[in-house]
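Q: Fatty acid desaturase family protein, please. Structure only.
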Amino acid sequence: MKEFHSFGWYAARISPHLPKKAFQPVPSRLFGGLAYFLIALSGILAISLLDLHPIWKTLISVVLGFSFAALGFLGHEILHGTVVRTPWLRDFLGAVAFWPLCTGPKLWRKWHNVTHHAHTQDEEKDPDAWPAVEKLAKSRLLRWVYNIPFTIRAFFAFSSLAITFTLHSTRMLFYFLKDFQPRNRSIVFFQFLLPWATWIGLLFVVGFANWFFIFLLPLLIANFIVMSYISTNHRLNPLVPVNDPLANSLSVTVPKWVDVLHFNFSYHTEHHLFPSMSSKYYPLVKEHIKKMWPDRYHEMPMIQALRALWKTPRLYYQQTELIEPRQGNVYGSLGYGLDPSHIEYRKMENKKQVLTKKVAGQLKK
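A: Structure for Fatty acid desaturase family protein:
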């Protein structure tokens, strides 16, 4: 793909084919959130008050983890203004939905809505984009990471999905805090600390054994579920000079019942075309994209996308390829030669053509 278009260009061509109600908020999504809230509350009370066998606590903990993740998906939708439009109510409901993931609404809207959506897959401006190979020369940490053998690194990368959202959210707090006006910084910090204070406070009420099943294990499960989606959203796509959702985003496919439980979070390209539209209408958007630009649209089963992530590195080379600098293996990205069903790479003829002498010398051969 060599010709890029902005998300507005695509949206302008699809919008006339969509019903007017698709552009209105859908408050009924809150019924799903209420169901998850009641399930989570029931699980917390059951573990806290009943003398349950650890097996039952583990099963309840898994349900809590799924509920925490689903509430995060709903919180994402709420804070885009697709459920309610009143700002204070939007932020309040978004804060409640994101409470288990300990992310505040002001930070999320600055990090995700304002910055990530405006600069998707821009190496310098997108806070969620992975770096290009040139960053190796500037980062001792990156050089250390890429000295680890590829298979070992892939294993730990996937294992770390259980903590990545929490860690990245904390990093984004300090990354963006300076960008808020002084009077809002205390609010952003308070919105971040308050959920943590309630969960840590619960630790002293119920004890560590119960708290592990009530919060810690569910948080790890929720992180893994959320990051399984987020890691497939853009990490197989190229870095791009124009914010083109059909070039820089991937929609994954999951069973229909999973889409219902996860508020259609799998429709990610559609979300980047219409971020202020309820995900309820994303299947309709997908139909029109596939009619108009079938050769540009990227979708695949989530399992296949995760498998492709496992088999490819996360360091960009010349914007459109992925590179394993330690061995000089170069992989394509979506739209640029990557076949998820048959991952292949080419050997770089001379690694020094890409890596500085300093970096090449510090990376083991």
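A: Brief note, in case it's useful. The chain has a mean pLDDT of 94.
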